[in-house]
Amino acid sequence: MPDTAAPRPEAAPWWRHASIYQIYIRSFADGNGDGVGDIAGVRSRLPYLRELGVDALWFNPWYVSPMADAGYDVADYRDIDPLFGTLAEAEELIAKAHEHGLRVIVDLVPNHCSDRHPWFPRALAAGPGSPERDRFWFLPGRGAHGELPPNDWQSYFGGPAWTRVTEADGAPGPWYLHMFAPEQPDLNWEHPEVRTEFEDILRFWLDRDVDGFRIDVAHGLAKKPGLPDVGPSPDPSDLPYQDVDAVHDVYRGWRRILDSYPGERAFIGEVWLPEAQQFARYLRPDELHSAFNFDFLCCPWDAEALRKVVDSTVEVHRTVDAPPTWVLSNHDTIRHVTRYGREDTSFDMGDKRLLDPSDPALGRRRARAAALITLALPGGVYVYQGDELGLPEVQDLPDAVLQDPTFVRSGGLDRGRDGCRVPLPWAGHTPSLGFSPGPRAADPWLPQPPAWAALCVTAQDGDPDSFLTLYREALALRRAGLAALPQTLTWTDTGPDTLGFDRPGADFRCLTNFAGLQPLPADAEVLLSSGPLRPGPNGATLLPADTTVWLRTRPAGWGSEC
Ligand code: NOJ
Questions:
Q1: pTM, to two decimals
Q2: The domain that contains 385 carries what CATH number?
């Protein structure tokens, strides 16, 4: 029976319950045969995405870029990199996606630009103390001759967050800040032109009808005045380059712009912060609409830990009336099929254990079970391209092909993120597994494991036991009913080593078993299962370990009403 006490969110904006598919464009589909994914490739696969059943697409950066960090070093925010296509193609893709019922979210990279963005060479040329340099963080070095960086900040990619400039006359000059690679100078968000420039960039893409923006390093734009040292034992919740109050004013300004456009558009923040209260402040009603839930992504495969993180997520979002979101993998993290097959199933951004052994069958089983958990939870959900195919991390890429700057900057200690960015397998046993068109196409920009032939879309299509079928069925059920339910859940007491929750407003239960065999409730009807069930004594059905089922808890309830 529908629960009339709780508000029914059919009329709720799409971003409160959307399933959003992340397109890492260089690895999704290659349309022109150069071995790199592009807009033409995406366009040709729109029917696949529609059939998959997602609501929206998030594109990683496609702008003009020297690609020092795979496009997160933007040289022109208003144009498309020729590697991916043209602005006209992007405009057409947005329109076509809309025709397919898919919303479009683009990536906005405001913390830093490329060192080839016109502002940066201009700043270098203009010399010390020039207004052109004020758009960045140029500071004199410490030490007798300025030979030491201005402070002790470390780049997220390893090494100091500062690079010293050599002036036009060959003399060593000041240092500039880059929290990522040296090719990604940080912008100075205290500068009014930085603000107006990004407001204009927002309008540029809103005028091209995008439905939202994913904001890169959303917690990092503002820096603590004076750029003080971090010190020897920093408090992770009080770092001078993270979560500095002034950043909220930026988002309030952006929100006014977004809200001035018709339709439902949204900001999604990439907010990595240790404290829930800090995180929630980004989701206040006049700031961002939602943010990625990295606590969930980092959580180990453990009933109690998952329950805790779901609870804290729901609670923290409730305080600001924002929708929770759920994500298992993305282009920066180890693919969860591999993570879940390890002994330690947690993830940590500083994780350097990319080569740790993983049991593939266990990882796949858990990844399927986890998919049904995420797709049943209230709020928004992200599917990283290849999740729906059960792709594992590629752990044996040879050093020579690695392109992620973290590999080089860590002196090879961190193998980087290339292993989760390997081009998708679409079809057959061709050299590129259908990623690129025709036999004469260039090799994919990263080599695909030959074993991925068995994971390609055509191999999974129509196979009732495949990952792809599971995702398609789950997304269809989600669309048909779950997404429109009140955005709440109720835990059910299903015993230790299980995780069970109901969605008020429907006779629906999601039940996961983490160990042993668990009998299913006698009157329950199985709507979907992530793995085979077993017959038990007296006609009972048993749920094996690392398996999730979606149940209709009372006949003639959920499904017929939603
Ligand atoms: C977060 C992005 O997801 C990552 O890929 C990128 O390297 C950094 N931000 C820097 O832009």
A1: 0.95
A2: 3.20.20.80
Q: What number does the ligand 1 atom closest to the CA of 109 have?
A: 11
* Residue 157 CB–ligand 1 contact under 6 Å: no
Q: Which atom of ligand 1 is nearest to the CA of 72?
A: 11
- Kindly give the residue spans of alpha helices, DSSP state H, lying in 159-302: 192-207, 246-259, 276-280, 294-298
Please check whether residue 278 is in contact with residue 224, taking contact to mean a CB–CB distance below 8 angstroms.
no
Q: Does the CB atom of residue 181 touch ligand 1 within 6 A?
A: no
Give every strand in the sheet of 525-529, ordered side by side: 490-491, 498-502, 508-513, 547-552, 525-529
Residue 456 CA to residue 438 CA, distance in Å, equals 16
Q: Is 38 in the pocket of ligand 1 (CB under 6 A)?
A: no
Q: Does residue 217 line the site of ligand 1, with CB under 6 A?
A: yes
Residue whose Cα lies nearest atom 4 of ligand 1: it is: 332
Nearest one of 144, 204, 150, 142 to 176, comparing CA atoms = 150
Let me know if residue 197 belongs to a domain. Answer: yes
Query: 100: which DSSP letter?
Result: T
As given in the structure block, the two tokens for residue 344 are 């330690």
* Model pLDDT for residues 416-453, shown as the tens digit of each residue: 999 999 999 999 888 899 999 988 999 999 999 999 99
Count: domains in the chain: 3
Nearest one of 458, 293, 274, 268 to 373, comparing CA atoms:
293
**231-259 confidence digits (pLDDT tens):** 999 999 999 999 999 999 999 999 999 99
Question: Does residue 541 share a domain with residue 398?
Answer: no
